[in-house]
Amino acid sequence: MQGKTCILIGAPVDSGKRRRGCIMGPDAYRTADLAEALRDLGHTVIDRGNLAPEPAEATGFADHVHAPAETIGWTLTLTRAAEDAMAEGLPIFMGGDHSLSLGTVSGVARHARATGRPQFVLWLDAHSDFHTPRTSTSGNLHGTPLAYVTGRDGFDAFPPLTAAVPEENICIIGLRSVDPQERSALAETRILCHDMREIDEHGIGRPLARFLDKVAAAGGALHVSLDVDFLDPSVAPAVGTTVPGGATVREAHLVMEMLDDSGLMTSLDLVELNPFLDERGRTAQVMVDLAASSLGRKVFDRATRAYV
Question: In the chain, where does DSSP find H-type helix?
Answer without folding.
Answer: 25-31, 34-40, 68-86, 101-114, 145-149, 180-187, 196-202, 205-218, 249-262, 282-293
